[in-house]
Structures are given as C-alpha cells and as structure tokens.
C-alpha cells in the first residue's frame, strides 16, 4: 500500500445529514513516501456560511461566490482517490461529507482502505497532551501556516502521517505483532502497514537493546536502583547563601532569575522547621518562587541527614512541574544526584501479568478496548514508570484500565510478586528516594489506613495547603454514588462468564458457581435500585424549595438525633441489598476455592481470575461495611444525601465527613510527625494564620513557625479593583441582578476586547448568564465558553478561550484557582458574588451550629475566612507574571458596604479601588487600559 490520498475539508457545519456542505477541499497525494500531487479548491456551498465558520477559517461569503459547485469538480476529485489509502484527521467526519457530495453528484461513495491520523496519533504518540492537528503540529515542530484551511491542513496531516509511520517502523517486532491482534477492531486499516514494518525487522537487522521482554511484552529498560553515595554538604547557611547569591547559584540555572529576599527567607524557614521539629505555616504570594524555596531546603535536609522528606500537592500538574522542571534545576547545586520519586496508589500502575492475559483475549474486544490496548502497547516501549497519568485513554478505556491495574494483582502471590511490576518498582524508588512527591488524597489515606500507603517519613511539605482540609475531610468520611456502584456491579457481572476465562479442562462446576453469582448480582442490583429510588423520592419530598449545591443538586442533611421514619425503612431496604452482597461473597469464595488446584499447577488464567475476584470481593465488602455504618447513629459524623431533582429518579449520592476534622489531623498527623510545613499563596485572612491554624487543630498560642511572604509583583501599578454601586439587590430580585451582570459583562468585553474570565459561586447563575450573553452577543464579535455548558474539560475550555482573539470564559468552582492565563490573553476577571458557602449546605450548617452552641461566631470563624481565601484565589487569576495588567470587577456591593468587606480588602495586595456606577467604571477602565 504505497499510495496515500490525504485530504481535508472546510464545511458550513458538523453534519452532512442535516444539509451542511463543503466550502473548501485540499488533497495531497503521497506515492512511495514522496509528495507527487496537490489539489485545492474553494466550493460554492449553496447556503450561507455561519459567522463561527468564517471566524474559524477566514472564509467569507464573497470568497466562494465565484467558486465551482462540488459536482463541477467531483469527477476530478474522485479520480484522485482511485487506488489510494485515504487519510484524514478524524476521517469519519471528512469521509461522511465527501461521500454525501459524491452521492449528490451521481458518483459511487469511497470504500478504499483508510487511516485516521487522530487514531494513529493516539496509538503512536500515547503521551501527547492533545490530538488536535494544530497542537500535534506544534509539538512535533511541523510548520502549519494557515490552520483551518483545507490544503494547509492536508499538508500538515501528510507530514504527521509520515512521522507516525516512521515511528511505527521503529517499534520492536513483538510490539508490532501484538498490535496485529487488535488491528481488526480499529477504524484505520493498519494491517498492511504493520506487516510491512514487521518485514523490515525480519529482513534487516534491528538492534533494540533499550527494550526487554516483560510477560512477553516489549518494555523500555528501567533502572532498578537509584541509590547514590555522596559526601556531606557545607553548612546550610553558607550553602543557601551560595544558592541564592553566587554567580554559579540559581542565577546560572534559571532564565530571567531575579534575587528575591522573600524566597531566601522561605528556604531558611523550612529548614528551621525541619531541624527544630516545628510545624510551620508559610504563605508565599504569586511569583515568590515557593516551590524552589522549599525544594532547596527539603533536598538539603534529606541529603545531609539521610532521611526522606515527603512533598504533597493537590494537582498532578504541580507534581510534574516539580519533577520535570524544578528538581532538575536545583539538583545542579548538589554534589550528587538527587533522588526524587512520584509515588501514587496501586490503581495508577499497570500490571503486566493482567495486561498480557487480556492481550491473549483480543478477539473479544470492542473498539475502545482495542484502541486502549494499542495505546498501552506503544506506551510500554516509552514509559519508565507505568503510571497511567502519562497517557490519555479513550472514553471507555478507564474500565479496561481497571482490569489491568496493579490494584488487581495484589492478592495472589504468583501475581502480586510478578518479577516485573511497575508498582513494586515505584515503591522501591520511593523507599530509596530523598524526596517523595505524592498527592493530598494518598497522603491522607496513609494517615487513616491501617495499611501503610507511603514509606515511613517524619517531615513533609504540604503545598497547595488551602485544599488540604477539604481533601482530608473527604478521606476521613464517605462518598457514595449509586451510579458508580451499579457500574461496578455490572462490570463485576461480566467477570462470571467462565467460558471467556481461557481455562483448560473441566469447568462445569465453575460455570454453575458463576451462574449463581450472576443471579446474586442481579438481585443486588434490583435491591440497590429499589433503595435508591425510595431515597430519591423521600429526599425530594423532604427538601421542597430548599437551596441546592453549587452544581445544582438538592441536599438533605440527615438529622443527628431522632431520625425520621423513612430512614428506618431505608435501613431495612439496605439490609436486603447487603444480604445479596453476602450471598455473592460466599459464591466468590467457592469459585476461589475451586480455582486453587489450578493455581497450584501454575495455570496463569486461574491466577489472574482468582486475583480479580479477590480484589472485587474486598471492594464490595468495603462498600457493604460503609453503607451499613452510614445509617448508624454517629455524632462525630455529618451525613447528607444529594439528588439531581431533574435527573434520573434513582440516582443518589451519600456523603459523610467528620464533625471535627481538626482532632483527627492532630492525632493522626501533627502529633505523630516531627515537622509538617503547610504552604500556599492563600493561607492568611486579614493578615493572620488563625483560621488555617484552627482548621488544623492548633490553638492561637501554639508554638508554630509562621511566615508570610508578599508577592514581588507591583499590583498597585498593574491592577485596578472596580465595584459597581448600582447593581440590583440580588435578595430582592435575582433575575434583575443576573440581567445586570450579563449587561455589565458585555459592556466590559467591548472595552477589554474579550479576554475576560467570569467567576460564579452558583452553577445556576452561570447558566442563566450564559443564556443572556448568547442572546445579545454576535458570535462574530465574541466567542463565549462556559463550564458545564460548552463541552470539554477545564483545560480544554481554557485552551479554546486562548485560541480566539475575543472570547469570554464563564466558570464556577474549579475555575477560581489553578487556571493560569498569563499575558495578553486575560485582561479582566469578573467576580459575580463574594464566594461564601451557602449557609444551608450540610457541612457548613452543622459546623456553624456546633460553634454557635459553644458560644462562638460561626460566620466570623469559618464562613468569612473560607470566603476570603477563595476570593484571594479568584483575584489571583489575573496576575500570573510581572508583565500582566488588568481589571478585577466585583459585582457585589458587600465588598464596600458590609462591615466584613474590609477583611476581604485587607487580605489582597493593595490596589486602587473604585466604587461608582457601572457606566462610570467602564469609562474609567477604557481610559486606564
């Protein structure tokens, strides 16, 4: 297969079946790896070109007025595809359009072999951050002159295809053979290409010393030891002065390095806390360089004292930043290799035993399973960690991953002690490391679990520490989803198809036991459905007209005394469900016992299946215990139920969190460890750490190390804070407030040319504001993206926002922090309301009542500090570098008129504040910008 016809289309919309038409076509013909022909033409679509398409492609109505109809070029185009493998980036889209046009032109549709470069890129570039054509081109250094023009996109796709085919040819022969097992289930016809690549190996000598076979699968060679010997470093004060001040210090390692006294003070404070066995709270404003500051001290302490230190973060992006960017830089200041390891739970790592077993059963795969296997096969030739966070799996790929993660390989000795285990390797590296980087969830699970999740440590830095309380509270409580448990049961049900296990010999008794277990699962699903449906109706009845969560769910707080009668009925229904689970567990034990002789004889399939049953049995037993305990009276837990009032009538969510988390943290963390340093850009409120100290269980007079380092950015020169004084009172008329908000956003956007992030505390308000903006804004003027309305993850929405010159991004919850949009892409942050938690949210309500009964002020001690920290996070979205400049527009008069408004203002950097009518503020903004 040596001829490729690579093509791309621009169209009036997404669906040929709904009458959308082609407006431009570009084709590149490759023959024997060389470009031999190009074809390009605009096409008159016989309908209007929508503004969005013009904005995306630059193709206007007048550009196509003299262009040919498609039927005028149809035969020439059809001939170009003759005898070729057809290639496109997302081929289903392009092929459906062109075949529809061929049909309208009286020509036969194309049935050639095809290659989808989206699919092929997912397989051959498993660690790519995006599979959009433009971003792939940028990552691979392929020039892309005019994106979203047909011929330019076809040219880039042809370059991408050649790159991917070359990568395929360099794969180990055994990997290519495994890929053949899944090829038939893919969209692309890769059989001939894979066979050609295999033939190259067979007829040319290929040297693959960088790979080794694990379970018959080629895997990149991984270093098995990271130990190193080194002499002692000089004294800390001398060493840290050299790091910050000497010509061969940080200034030689970092571009645009500027000495910052606050950064050096932070390094000294962290080291002081470690050496004096103190706990510390350190706030470091944006741009203070806190990660480098604490890394220097943590690594110095670990190397000089031969004692590991743990770094815990909230986001995986910060973990990768520390490991890939910051640590390699500061390592050069040491006279030895720095041993740092990211360590996660077992579910993150692949088990080669389980993956090998699944590869042998590829004839049973659906599309997503086949694609996931192909991705994993190529990834295993690249990864040195086996950590799934390195790759993007397809939508159903997570379900397959659950089958092959190290979590499944934990119970059968022959599987759990497999010679080649990425989890065991990660654990070994963590045990040898100077620095372990982990996440808050695993860090907290280690505190509360009887099973040790992390290697032993005495000192830790908790970065992004403003999240730590909420993560810990969830880990010490319960989160139950009806949908998730039903999914687990359905997935578990598939495991009992004994005929698909690949066992040898007699299996009749196993088939009988499997059928019995499947009956028990179906019974359990029916009981769970009945229980959830009943709870849904009761919660809906109890909570008529009550407030909702920030994502719109109805919440019902379980009374801590005198439970209502319906909860007794619910507990009885739950007993029937757990009885079915008990019956299921007995059946699983029978199957495990029946498999035991086969395991002793070394039958691999029996070992794999038995380990999966053990893993699932433990998971279900854990759920059974948690659900039984949930309806037991416990004054130390706050429990509530959530439902989506407009959603399915059986989908419920159960939650519980500790009444007093602070006590748990004191006993499990601060009293057991010698030094814990908590750091973030937002830890203080009204220039005090008292709220954060209290939430962690410390009294105001506790002997702690406290340090607040201001941001080095010139906020007073680069930021203006605007508060309109003429907004309607939201309590009197919410609809008028939202209308005024929409009008203000539109007016601001005209001055700032879009480049605006609007932050909400309520998803309902976000959706209403979005509808208002969509009605009054022409898409040619501004693009509008909204969390939960526009498709895509937070990162995808951010990238879309940055891709357009004039755009507005609406976000709630997660958008208040962790969204970095530096430079000219962001000129204005609008804060719709001060970010107070609704007072009737369950956890907030009970903890406020607890404070009130103790004669304390819940609003001042909890609600206000929480809101201030969140406000600081939102405010911080605007200035992410020393060159950034813009407006923070707060549509909440309470900031200026309420007594507590001064606490918000005193907690952010000093900036000019203007409190005037909306029209005057907009004129002021226009002049200032």
TrEMBL record:
Lineage: Bacteria, Bacillati, Bacillota, Bacilli, Bacillales
EC number: 3.1.-.-
Family: Belongs to the helicase family. DinG subfamily. Type 2 sub-subfamily.
Keywords (A to Z) from UniProt: ATP-binding, Exonuclease, Helicase, Hydrolase, Nuclease, Nucleotide-binding
Reported function: 3'-5' exonuclease.
Placement of sequence motif DEAH box: 463-466
Protein name: 3'-5' exonuclease DinG
Presence of the UniProt keyword Hydrolase in the record: yes
Transmembrane is among the record's keywords: no
Domain of life per record: Bacteria
Gene: dinG
GO molecular function annotations of the record: DNA helicase activity; hydrolase activity
Residues covered by the Helicase ATP-binding domain: 249-557
Chain sites annotated for binding ATP: 284-291
Alphabetized CDD domains for the sequence: DEDDh
């Amino acid at each position: 297969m040596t001829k490729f016809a690579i093509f791309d289309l621009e169209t009036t919309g997404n669906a040929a079946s709904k009458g959308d038409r082609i407006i431009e076509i570009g084709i590149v013909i490759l023959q024997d790896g060389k470009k031999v022909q190009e074809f390009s033409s605009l096409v008159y679509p016989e309908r209007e070109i929508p503004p969005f398409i013009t904005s995306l492609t630059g193709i206007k109505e007048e550009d196509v007025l003299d262009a040919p109809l498609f039927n005028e070029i149809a035969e020439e185009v059809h001939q170009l595809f003759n005898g070729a493998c057809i290639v496109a980036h997302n081929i289903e889209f392009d092929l459906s359009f062109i075949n529809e046009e061929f049909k309208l032109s009286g020509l036969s549709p194309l049935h050639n072999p095809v290659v989808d470069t989206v699919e092929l890129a997912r397989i051959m570039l498993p660690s790519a951050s995006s599979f959009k054509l433009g971003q792939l081109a940028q990552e691979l250094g392929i020039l892309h002159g005019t994106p979203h023009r047909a011929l330019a996109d076809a040219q880039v796709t042809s370059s991408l295809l050649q790159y991917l085919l070359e990568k395929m040819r360099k794969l180990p022969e055994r990997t290519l053979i495994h890929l053949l097992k899944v090829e038939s289930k893919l969209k692309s016809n890769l059989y001939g290409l894979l066979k050609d690549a295999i033939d190259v190996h067979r007829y040319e000598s290929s040297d693959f010393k960088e790979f080794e076979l694990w379970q018959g699968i080629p895997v990149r060679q991984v270093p098995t030891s990271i130990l190193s010997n080194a002499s002692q470093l000089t004294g800390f004060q001398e060493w840290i002065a050299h790091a910050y001040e000497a010509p061969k210090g940080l200034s030689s390692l970092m571009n645009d390095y500027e000495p910052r006294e606050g950064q050096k003070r932070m390094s000294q404070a962290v080291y002081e806390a470690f050496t004096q066995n103190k706990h510390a709270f350190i706030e470091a404003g944006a741009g203070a360089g806190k990660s480098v500051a604490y890394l220097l001290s943590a690594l110095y302490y670990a190397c000089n004292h031969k004692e590991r230190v743990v770094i815990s973060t909230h986001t995986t992006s910060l973990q990768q930043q520390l490991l890939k960017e910051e640590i390699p830089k500061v390592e050069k200041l040491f006279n030895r290799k720095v041993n740092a390891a990211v360590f996660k739970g077992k579910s993150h790592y692949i088990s080669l035993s389980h993956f090998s077993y699944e590869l042998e059963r590829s004839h049973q795969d659906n599309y997503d399973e086949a694609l996931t296997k192909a991705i994993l096969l190529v990834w295993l030739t690249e990864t040195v960690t086996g950590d799934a966070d390195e790759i993007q799996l397809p939508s159903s790929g997570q379900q397959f991953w659950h089958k092959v993660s190290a979590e499944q390989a934990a119970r059968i000795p022959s599987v759990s002690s497999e010679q080649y285990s990425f989890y065991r390797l990660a654990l070994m590296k963590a045990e040898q490391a100077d620095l372990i980087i982990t996440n808050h969830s695993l860090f907290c699970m280690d505190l509360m679990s009887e099973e040790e999740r992390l290697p032993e440590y005495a000192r830790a830095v908790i970065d992004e520490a403003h999240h730590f309380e909420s993560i810990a509270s969830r880990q010490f409580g319960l989160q139950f989803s009806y949908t998730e448990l039903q999914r687990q049961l359905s997935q578990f049900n598939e495991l009992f198809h004994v005929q698909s296990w690949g066992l040898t010999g007699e299996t009749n008794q196993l088939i009988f036991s499997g059928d019995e277990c499947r009956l028990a699962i179906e019974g359990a699903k029916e009981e769970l459905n009945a229980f959830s449906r009943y709870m849904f109706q009761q919660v809906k009845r109890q909570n008529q007209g009550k407030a909702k969560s920030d994502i719109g769910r109805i919440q019902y707080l379980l009374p801590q005394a005198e439970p209502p009668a319906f909860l007794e009925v619910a507990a009885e229904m739950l007993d029937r469900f757990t009885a079915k689970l008990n019956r299921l567990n007995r059946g699983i034990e029978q199957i495990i016992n029946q498999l035991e002789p086969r395991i002793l004889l070394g039958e691999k399939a029996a070992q794999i299946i038995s380990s999966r049953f053990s893993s699932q049995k433990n998971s279900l037993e854990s759920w059974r215990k948690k659900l039984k305990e949930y309806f037991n009276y416990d004054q130390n837990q706050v429990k509530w139920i959530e439902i989506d009032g407009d959603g399915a009538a059986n989908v419920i969510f159960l939650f519980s969190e500790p009444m007093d988390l602070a006590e748990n943290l004191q006993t499990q963390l601060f009293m057991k460890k010698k030094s814990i340093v908590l750091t973030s850009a937002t830890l203080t409120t009204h220039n005090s750490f008292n709220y954060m100290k209290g939430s962690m269980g410390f009294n105001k007079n506790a002997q702690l190390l406290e340090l607040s380092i201001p941001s080095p950015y010139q906020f007073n020169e680069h930021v203006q804070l605007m508060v309109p004084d003429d907004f309607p009172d939201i309590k009197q008329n919410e609809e008028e407030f939202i209308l005024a908000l929409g009008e203000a956003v539109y007016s601001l956007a005209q001055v700032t040319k879009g480049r605006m992030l609007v932050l909400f505390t309520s998803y309902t308000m976000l959706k209403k504001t979005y509808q208002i903006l969509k009605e009054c804004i022409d898409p040619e003027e501004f693009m509008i993206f909204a969390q939960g309305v526009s498709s895509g993850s937070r990162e995808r929405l951010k990238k879309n926002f940055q891709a357009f010159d004039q755009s507005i991004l609406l976000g709630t919850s997660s958008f208040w922090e962790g969204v970095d949009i530096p430079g000219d892409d962001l000129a204005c942050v609008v804060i719709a309301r001060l970010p107070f938690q609704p007072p009737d949210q369950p956890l907030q309500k009970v903890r406020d009542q607890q404070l009130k009964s103790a004669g304390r002020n819940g609003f001042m001690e909890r609600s206000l500090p929480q809101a201030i920290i969140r406000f600081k996070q939102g405010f911080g979205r605007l200035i992410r570098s020393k060159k950034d400049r813009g407006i923070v527009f707060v549509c909440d008069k309470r900031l200026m008129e309420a007594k507590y408004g001064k606490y918000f203002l005193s907690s952010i950097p000093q900036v000019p504040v203007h409190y005037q009518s909306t029209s005057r503020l907009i004129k002021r903004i226009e002049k200032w910008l």
